[in-house]
Amino acid sequence: MKNQKLTLKYKDDFEQTKKYWETFWEGEIIDRPLLIILFPKDENKYVNGPSYLSGIDGNFEKPVNEFENFCENTFFFGEAIPSLNISFGPDTISYCVKEADKNVRIKSGTAWIEPFVSDWENFKKIEIDKEGEWYKKFLNFYKYASKKGDGKFLLQMPDFHTHLDLLRAIRGSENLCIDLIERPDFIKKILEETKDIFIDIYNDIYNSTNMGKYGTTCWIPLYSEKKYCTIQCDFICMISVAMFRKFALPYIEHEANFLDHSIFHLDGPGALKHLDDLLSIKKLNAVQWVPGAGNKPHIYWIDLFKKIIKAGKSVIIYPHSFEEIKTFHKELGPERIVYQPLWKIKNLKEAEEIRKYLVENT
Question: Are strands 104-107 and 83-84 parallel, antiparallel or unpaired?
């Protein structure tokens, strides 16, 4: 609870960290921008956390133990909070749709679903099968990890791909593009029928774990004492602004209105044409810009970050050097900024130098 004093084994300054995050969501600062920095306690001993898709086989104990070992050997600096990522792949939510289970594929460290809706006429309704294998396994992983991690670490909300992304997963990208042109009213009807799937699953996870006690985080590791999550729709790269406004914007806004705090995952140049509409969503708090493979890193997108911040939204920035942080800080100022450095920070001394610079220049 907001005024309850809580401790985490792997985050001694959790209470102080909560204050920084609370101020961040208000669009203000305490003394500097926020920092998410992790480095090994022994710079000569780097310990990895659990691998991607750990637990998909039903063995929850192994990834939780591996994550604890990672936490034991890692320093969570600034506003970084130890949090376990639970994922069965980017299309996990689609696995839980009725009739989807036999179409899930797991191979070579990745998992996906084969599109299985060949004809909408023979597939009347999209429903989450809460008695199905995948939903039970997914929720049981959260329950197990919540119990084992109580007082030690948090759990991340999953990689949600709902509304258009969910339809893309079960129908296929090409087929869905054709559907939007040939059967727009039918697709709109399906989107209306499924718009609460995000809310339903979020609440199931939230109510089955200790998130109400400790707060929430996600695969984009911002933190809130209330309900926070990443909102996303990668399919928007494939549609026009007009289609976005009809088939995506209302459902992105619906999810943002449900959450207390949110960040939108804006993925690739093809999604930029929708930025103005996204910035118009009142309850959307932040934007994560991912330039995409082969495109220039964040330091080349300062004007874009200025636009997002001017619209009253926050940003998470991935600098590649201390010098880049200095440039960002001078250009963007301290408010509405979270830095998550991408270069290897070796020890506490290096991390403290970054924090000291930001405090002294804010």
Answer: unpaired
pLDDT in tens, 226-279: 999 999 999 999 999 999 999 999 999 999 999 999 999 999 999 999 999 999
Determine the residue type at 23. T
Fold of 14-360: TIM Barrel (3.20.20)
Query: What is the residue-wise DSSP string for 10-61?
Result: TBTTHHHHHHHHHHHHTT--SSS-EEEEEEESSTT-----PPTTTTTTS--H
Question: Which of 120, 127, 157 is CA-nearest to residue 142?
Answer: 157
Are residues 262 and 230 in contact, defined by beta-carbon separation less than 8 angstroms?
yes
CB 175 within 8 A of CB 234: no
C-alpha to C-alpha distances, 56 to 71, 95, 111, 244, nearest whole angstrom: 21, 12, 9, 33
Q: Is the CA virtual torsion 337, 340, 344, 348 positive or negative?
A: positive
Q: What share of the chain is helix, strand, coil (3-state, %, to 5)?
A: 45, 15, 40
Q: Where are the domains of the chain?
A: 14-360
Q: Over the stretch 19-65, which tens digit does the pLDDT of each residue have? A: 999 999 999 999 999 999 999 999 889 899 999 999 999 999 999 99
